[in-house]
Amino acid sequence: MENLLQQLLNGITWGSIYALVALGYTMVYGVLKLINFAHGEVYMVGAMAGYYAAHALGVAGTPSLGALLLVLVVSMAACGLLGALIERVAYRPLRGADRLAPLITAIGVSLLLQNAGQLVFGADPKFFPALLHSEELVRVGGIAVSNIQVVVLATALALMAGLQYVVQRTRFGRAMRAVSYDAPAAALMGVPVDRVILGTFVLGSMLAAAAGILVGLSNPKIDPLMGLMPGLKAFVAAVLGGIGSVPGAMVGGLLLGVIETLVTGYLSSTYRDAIAFVILVLILLVRPTGLFGAPQTEKV
Amino acid sequence: MRGAWLAGAVCGASLAFVLACGSNERASNAIVVGHVASMTGDTATFGRSADQGMRLAIEKINAAGGVLGKPIELVTEDDRSVTEEARTAAQKLLQRDQVVALLGEVASSRSLAAAPEAQRAHVPMISPGSTNPKVTEVGDYVFRACFIDPFQGAVMARFAVDDLHAKRVAILFDFKQDYSVGLAEFFRETARKLGAEIVADERYTSGDIEFRAQLTTIRAAKPDAIFVPGYYTEVGLIAKQARELGIDVPLLGGDGWDSEKTIEIGGEAVEGYYFSTHYAADSDSPRVQAFVTEFQAKYGATPDAMAALGYDTAGILADALTRAGSTDGAALRDAVASTQGFEGVTGKISMDPQRNARKDAVVLRIEGGKFRYHKTVSAE
């Protein structure tokens, strides 16, 4: 029993990283009906930006919550800019083109970032500086909870709550929902559609950056190709939750993390990567709209 | 359009010319030896260390007049730690550079990818550090300068049972690496024979970063020791996550741990853990100390096992070249095969009929962020 609870904790922590990345997929899909396959690479750049920021700011050797927060903010800002740049350069010129064109561009941007990453950062894995001194926080029965797990979960949940607030309670969020619901109509009502789309990319990219930092914190090995698999998995998570649905991406991410952990813990790690894609196929066959993606559900 | 075509043709022609000149020049005055190495990627320290060791040895050999009156030139081809690339790298060295011998790889899976190329070309290949038995079974041109995993696995199983008094042991291995799969198998076999119980047998894949699921299962099995026969990148992460989960029994490993990166990644989490390897840099043997001093003077770092093995591998080749009296593939193969009592920094090296070097293993303990000599296990 305590074993199962420990696995659930492991899974939720791991899944919160998928969830943060999945949010970017789902938001962009919401406003643009585009699967931004370069999103996994934004997550990679987030981790890299964090690595360089930690060294440049001199906090790599002094673990503290402040250091983590500082690196998180810098990396999120850098990726926000990157997201805006990608949208502006790669997707906006194709607005109104056939749906296939931006999809292919997305794959192109993804490959560009992977290879540019190898050129700029080097192909060697890097080891993310310890921004927090890892220690066991509490031990309930046989369940060990480390401070890293708590910080990862808390940060992810705080960011998701923040996003939920932005989407539901702010002017920008309302504009986003309007564009997602019906872009031409929103434009007629005076919603600056292009700016909203740009803002959506910035927001999604910032969340991916946060995921990159959190993974650097809990699994401190980063490399230019690290975004590939988590990118695909997060896409599966977004589809699982219902692509276009913000709560769906959150639940989908957490669920995928838990499923992967349980499969690894109780079956074999051999199936860890396969299970995500089995889920993708099943969802597309049985319930293509995902868990939260019923047509009546509000889309973002 | 036409201009571009012309420019391309001129470039191509001049490139071909340069390449042709380059190889001609080389062939006339140097013995060219190839090194297939992971200079970048997941296990980059293996390739880099081995390459540094080889270059140090070759520099010394050349300073003393080279072999057969010619200097040795080492051409290194990076395989980015990717199995398929090792094969391509070997092909490049054999065909483009016409090397007389191939050195490398360290990782067994990559040696297994490269070895058939050397065998087909009838060019001797010596792996510095591939310990999986299958590597030299590829053919009679394939050698290694190190011991093999049935020995290494038995050493660690014996160490766990006899020295650490472990009755319940768990294994966590990388099922994508022949090295790790083989080592786990031999450890399992010997541990069982010695009366220990394998209470958990979990696996991961090279490149994984999340191991908490497997470690939680292992923790539930309450082992006295955990054998992790992986490569340093994953080992560091595994150690960290094991400590976070409150696992306080020692982790044990093989020579795949032998890289300063294990400590860089693992930090305090790898303290007090043990692994078997080929040599100890803090050994008091004068031969080892001379090597360590020279290596430090040239590269400013303490040589790890792969550097020492690289150094010995180049030494074995030079010794064989001198005895063969030629660079002919078959003659050189016979000379390498008849290596007897070569005094290396990793011990006295003799090739057995299966083209493996029989040598002692050492067990190191990680203490205060350094590898410390713990004990020697004889090959007998």
Dominant shape of chain A: globular
The helix count of chain A comes to: 11
Our count of domains of chain B comes out at: 2
The separation of the N and C termini of chain B measures 71 Å
Helix content of chain A: over 70%
Query: Most extensive interface: pair and counts?
Result: A-B, 37 and 33 residues
Shape verdict of chain B: globular
Give the distance, in angstroms, between the N- and C-terminal Cα atoms of chain A: 39 Å
Side-by-side strand order of the widest sheet of chain A: 1-4
Mean pLDDT of chain A: 91
Number of strands of chain A: 4
The overall strand count of chain B is 14
Largest beta sheet: strand ordering of chain B: 7-6-8-9-10-13-14
Oligomer: heterodimer
CATH fold descriptor of the largest domain in chain B: Rossmann fold
Helix amount of chain B, in percent? 40-55%
What class would the helix/strand composition of chain B place it in?
A: alpha/beta
- Provide mean pLDDT of chain B, rounded: 90
Compact description:
The complex is a heterodimer of chains A (300) and B (380). With 300 residues, chain A is mainly α.
Q: Key features?
A:
heterodimer; A: 300 residues; mainly alpha; two-stranded antiparallel ribbon; two-stranded antiparallel sheet; 72% helix; B: 380 residues; alpha/beta; Rossmann fold; 2 domains; seven-stranded mixed β-sheet; five-stranded parallel β-sheet; 13 helices
